[in-house]
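Appendix C reproduces, verbatim, an entry submitted by the partner laboratory led by Prof. M.T., so that reviewers can inspect both the input and the predicted structure.
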Amino acid sequence: MRDILKQPKSVWAVAFAAVIAFMGIGLVDPILPSIAEDLQATPTETEMLFTSYLAVTGIAMFFTSWLSSRLGAKRTLMFGLVLIVAFALFAALSNNVEAVIGFRAGWGLGNALFISTALATIVGSAAGGSSAAIILYEAALGLGIAVGPLLGGLLGHISWRGPFFGTAVLMAIGFIAIVTLLKSDSGANARVEPIPVSAPFKALARPALGLLAIAALFYNMAFFVLLAYSPFPLGLPAMGLGLTFFGWGVGLALTSVFLAPFLTARLQRTTVLRIALALLALTLIIAGLVIDSVPGLIACIVFGGLVLGVLNTVLTESVMESTDLPRSVASSAYSGVRFVGGAIAPTAATILADAFGASVPYFVAAGAALISFLVVLIGHRVLHRVNAPIESELEEASAIAAGEAS
């Protein structure tokens, strides 16, 4: 532990910015009802805050490895942070939901550039070897995912604009820290061999990677129904939603770091995936059945976070082991497809709820999780390679980081 804490200032600067970047995933969750009320927007329009953010993030993920291999890590980090600060501030100053949706899309672009580069930067600059760097990055990642909804609830209790202003200020501090403390020529910040822009697209033609990308597409639909749609049937104020999804985030962070490695040390990854996807589908079915019970729905959300943490880690570890492609290329291809699934789900959920009832989005999400289950089950022969041990701690961290980022 002492080795982990004795890090250069540059590492702490990137880790701090990483916490804030990952907070952005769930930050708007508690303020969705407030935005709908104050800006006279429908639930479907407010869900576009997730859709625009995730769609742009997904598309950008296909190109981040190409860009960072040419700009270098530090410049890519700075560019991403500038975009996040600018678009978060613009969103806070907006007076209609259409503008907020557009600025969230710009935020998604900045986040894609930042999160795709932060791990390599920390590993390249950290003291104590890659193990200490990995633990530090995972801690930043888990903290951001857990604290995002809580901060959104705290600031959203004052005004829906609060979380956007807060993010802009915190990321501006992170930008200044990286500019002043991170050396351009340190470790991972040096330029690497340029990666062709076509590499992630060609990667999807590999049978195992393509199969896992399909599984991730449907899994992420289920993920974001639970995360992005649930604030509406819960009907809680911003602080109540913040606390609920804080519990969700804590559970996700803990199982991704501790339970997932425990399970994969004892079971094949494909087996863990099937069990977890079946549990997720069951949890979503129960959520649909207890839709009128706030305590019951909260319990489903928090338990769902525990399952999602395992799935995030194991599914993306499987991607890392599915081919002999460079990890950055495989991650870009997989993450791009996965974020597209997340972009579809929130808006589709509110449309389904309006047309067929509040429970239906959960049942459809359960169906998506079962499709992902069937893809893994039917494709087990193609996926035999993913059950091999992770080759190094750094590759395991890359897998965890890519999964958690979504």
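The CA atoms of residues 321 and 386 lie 5 Å apart. Additional entries are available on request from the coordinating office.
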